[in-house]
Amino acid sequence: MSELEGDDELVLSELLNHVLDKGVVITGDVTISVADIDLLRLGLSVILSSVETLEGRRRGAEPQA
Amino acid sequence: MVDRAPDDGHRDPGEPRVEVSRGSAAAFAEELRALAPTLPERINADPDRVENGLARLVLTLIELLRNVLEHQAVRRMDGGALSDEEVERLGLALMRLDERMRELKATFGLTDEDLTIDLGPLGRLG
Amino acid sequence: MLHLYCLTSPGGERAASGVRGLEGAPVRVVRAGAVEAWVSEHETLPREVTPDLARAHDGVVRAAMAWETPLPARYGQTFANEESLTSALAAREGAIVEALERVRGAVEMTVRVLLDEDPAEEGAEERGERAAPLAALGWAGAGEGEAASGAGARARTGRDYLSSVRARHEREAALHRRAEFLQARLSRAVEGVTRGESRTPAPPSSRFLTVSHLVALGDVSEYRLALRSFVESEPRPRVLVSGPWAPYSFTENQRG
């Protein structure tokens, strides 16, 4: 194996592959299971982030309890 | 599985580095470039873009189904029980569906990689 | 809004102090029961991800990594406030604690293997000739469709279309068989120095097999050595190895 010197393109590709496509998603996801086996995991982070953002704005406008 | 190492003595693993087998750097760079040619423009991390999540969800499911349909169509064609006219109609319909899906994917800036689902224990389809 | 970088066990306050994240924003920890979240606060964040933003995100994850192996968060998760963050965490606390235990003291190494090469091409490489790009070999690009068919798509018959679909399926089946074969060989080469393995999902036309391994910190050099036996076995696979990373691929229940 040869070590790459300064091939920023490859290092960046690998970085993006990890940071954008992997990692834990806690903002929201749906897992569809059949017979207790998780078959589909759909990341809905974009949708649920939007909902939470709206909620947050609404809550922010209300007087403190 | 290896036994868990003790927690103390944890140290900074350092910067990630990339190594390639001899003579392969160009091949990898070319293939990876084909995967994500315009990465920064393609990724929209704006949480207010609800359509992004919905489009991805819907298109993923359609592509999943379309893949199964195409496999079935090929099997039927090879099975010999379809008339020439039926094969022609089937092929044209699927071809149009393929064209339409390309347009939709392009509209939302989604590639086949974006629409990949991990089927876990089911593994691959066809 | 809060941008989430990663999750750890409680106690990371000192490790997080002084750390800067996206756009130089200061990083702090938010406690939620048995877990802690590393976050930074922003008025707004850019719509598009840039390499600098991605690096800043991973930079914070690696700062946490110097203290304890974290569960890295996928880029782009934001929360309106601490309350929405802590309630999202509370709902998943058990699974997160389990995942943290699984990755404790370990790092991720990622291996990519090119699936398409023709052994005859390797001779060409050694003779100084550039290996033929995939397109020239007639393999369809992912998402781009068959180069030959693109222009004449409308002129083709339905039967022609189905025939090209069949041809594509056959190529994909060959790629799949090769990927399975290489993955099995790779797993055998590194078993004993890995705690877990995760294959990255890819479309059937993908030209890569991508596998990530969870490796105890102290085993990384042995892992690299073990990889060499895989790389040097015939027919020589074309391999790219990257790491060490935080365990981006091991945040859920992966087969060990």
Write a structural description.
The complex is a heterotrimer of chains A (65), B (126) and C (256). Chain A has 65 residues and is α+β, with helices and mostly antiparallel strands. Chain A has helices at residues 8-21, 45-61; strands at 2-3, 29-34, 37-43. A two-stranded antiparallel ribbon of chain A has the order 2-3. Chain A is elongated, with a radius of gyration of 20 Å. The termini of chain A are far apart. The two termini of chain B are 32 Å apart. Chain B is mainly alpha-helical and 126 residues long. Mean pLDDT of chain B is 75; it is low at 1-7, 37-50 and 121-126. The longest helix of chain C has 33 residues, at 158-190. Chain C is 39% helix and 21% strand. Mean pLDDT of chain C is 85; it is low at 118-152. Chain C has 256 residues and is of the alpha+beta class. In chain C, strands 1, 2, 3, 4 and 5 form a five-stranded antiparallel β-sheet that branches. A four-stranded antiparallel β-sheet of chain C has the order 7-8-6-9, with helices on one face. Strand 1 (17-20) of chain B pairs antiparallel with strand 9 of chain C, so a sheet runs across the interface.
Q: Main sheet of chain A, how many strands, which sense, barrel?
A: 2 strands, antiparallel
**Helix and strand succession of chain A?**
EHEEH
What is the overall silhouette of chain A?
elongated
Percent strand of chain B equals: under 5%
| Parts with pLDDT < 50 across at least 5 consecutive residues of chain B | 1-7, 37-50, 121-126
Number of separate helices of chain B: 4
- Largest interface between protein chains, with number of residues from each side: B-C, 68 and 78 residues
Oligomer: heterotrimer
Parts with pLDDT < 50 across at least 5 consecutive residues of chain A: 44-57, 61-65
Tally of DSSP β-strands of chain A: 3
User: Major sheet of chain B, described briefly?
Assistant: none
Mean pLDDT of chain A: 59
Major sheet: arrangement of strands of chain A: 2-3
**Span between termini of chain A:** 63 Å
What's the total number of strands of chain B? 1
Question: Percentage of helical residues of chain B?
Answer: 55-70%
Considering DSSP H and I runs of 4 or more, what fraction of the residues of chain A is helical? 40-55%
Written as H for each helix and E for each strand, in order along the chain, the element string of chain B is: EHHHH
